Amino acid sequence: MIQEKLSELNEKYNRNQFSKEEIDKLFSYDFTKLIDYVGKNFIDWNNPYSEAFTYNNKPKYSFFSGGKLDPIYNILGKHLNTNKKNKAAIIWRGTDFTERIFTYQSLHFEMLKFAYSLKKLGLKKNDKVLIYLPNIPETIISMLACLRIGAIHGLYHHSYSADSLSERIDNCKPEIIITTDYSLTGTEVDIKSKVDEALNKSNHKPKHVIVVERIPKKTHMKPIRDLWYHDLLSDTDFSSAASLEKVTLDSNDPIFFMITPTNFSEPKGLLYDVAGFLAWTHFTYNLLFDPNDNDTIWNTSDIAWMNGHNFGVYGPLMSGSTTVIFEDALTFENAKRFYGIIERYKVNKCYTTPRIMKTLMNADMKKKINSPIKSIELLFLGGEAIEEDVLDWTFKKIVSKSAPILNIYSQTEIGGAIVAQIPGYSLVKRNSIGQALPGIQVGIYDGITKTKIEYPQLRGIFMVEKPVMSMCKKLCNDDELFIKTFWKGYDSNYVFRTGDSAYFDEEQNIFLTGRVDEVIHVAGKRVNIAQVEEAINKNKFVKESAIIILNDEKKGDSMIAFCVLQKKIDESLHKRIMDEIHETILEELGEVVLPQEIKFVRVLPKGADGTVLKDLLKEIAMQM
Q1: How far is CA 206 from CA 143, 196, 203, in A?
Q2: What single DSSP character describes residue 112?
Q3: What is the value of pTM for the model shown?
Q4: Neighbours of 57 (CB within 10 A)
Q5: Tens digits of residue pLDDT in 352-370
Q6: E strands along 505-587, which residues?
Q7: pLDDT digits (tens, 9 = 90+) for 231-247
Q8: Could you give the CA distance from residue 70 to residue 274 in angstroms, rounded to a whole number?
Q9: Is 346 left (phi over 0), alpha (psi -120 to 50) or beta?
Q10: What are the residues whose beta carbons fall under 8 Å from the beta carbon of 57, sequence distance 6 or more?
Q11: Angle 548-554-556 from CA coordinates, rounded to 5°
Q12: Under 8 Å between Cβ of 108 and 73
């Protein structure tokens, strides 16, 4: 019943960008024509490209060969001579209820001053900058300042431990690290001390650590190496910054790197091309979020994740939207902040996750915190399946039975959305992630025969059959490993392996059925479960552990951890051990990867080669 209502609401939605007829036309374009359309309409070029798409040597490829662009002009500069220059670009709300608003003009001003400061420190094109910051305005300013001088930025989530940060520093070898003194997310956390600890352990030593002051509190600063962000800006005269020479990038120059351990035995930095990423992000933001001048967008994903890059920063700014940034993560304890932010800023389009909706529902049921919301016109969910009761609650309490609730499917390695339910266009089907977007060619493949499945309702491995312009092409220190890892020879062709299993129906709607590898997809973040096992094994009481993923089409993926203790321990200590394991995972990986259950067992079933029999553990878990 609710699905019929959502489809009816989506059919009635009046689009601002792209009419239904225009979307039909986009779907009629062949692969190369769609790329050419996106390139010509969603990037302002300094020099036009000569070829929209070329295979250099399958599966190696290039988009927009020969093109040159100024990325900052595409993101900010084009708005400065329009009536958008004094429009709010970023509205930031702090954990401590502080507020900062940047117009497009003031954001450009701050970015330019910081870019000039970085240039004076010796940073140059293609140098790497590691940004280890929470959701604060300086995070976005730092990203844009790096782009302004052609440096390659990479965000690493500030919740990760010093050990994890040290490994990432050695992998990407940044010239500069940008961090903060303290974070107020959840509780007050000394971030600078974590950076100092990481640098003591890492082999690579950056030239400088730039520190953003979040709270006025004493912080250890190493002479010469460590610099205060506010001192750099106060030392910079704007007239000098305004004279900074503009940097023009080639289409295939890197825009940023994103560090992920998924599918690799150790952390690797994924590099993304500037033109392809910006063009696809701009296009998909316009197609899916359907912006108009009065929009206020809130993407609850952290800026550090790919969805935060796409639909929290670059997409909204390129389209001239107002984007809301909240410093903290939404939890059971602070769930009321969600309603306060929606109401205060009249947010009308929101991207979030089923997990956050479930958190809000639980908080409302126990603490009665829900406030009527009337402003939402579009609500997007991504990252995992949503339970029926959560969807029903979301429909009644968040969109007031008056707005469509739609799905967006994206992946870090792909660099953006490839499947979605399009506002005002798509039929909304229960548990479906939608249809492949224009220009995206996907298929379901049999993992044994390696042939394409041609009939609906048959499960297989979800593959992308042709490159996506936003897609990662190589790693920071390896041009070949990414291709060898993700591009597979199936059915006499190269296809990109998403790692998800799925099936399609008669209308080509896609339904995910779980993962086919050792990866879990939660809250818009993909985590290799070997990382979680490694974190658990650091507990002094744990001898070994194994994690299995239970796939449920309605509830999504869930993790069950089986732990063998070092010796027989009184059951009264089990609660303490579980709390310690949770604390370690939180420090190492963040809240979203906490196992749903931790079970203590005497032994783990193993094969003759010593490998844990996870299929057997999964059968055991399903019978519990």
Answers
A1: 18, 12, 10
A2: H
A3: 0.86
A4: 6
A5: 998 899 999 999 999 888 8
A6: 510-515, 519-522, 525-528, 542-552, 556-565
A7: 999 877 777 788 888 89
A8: 10
A9: left
A10: none
A11: 35
A12: no
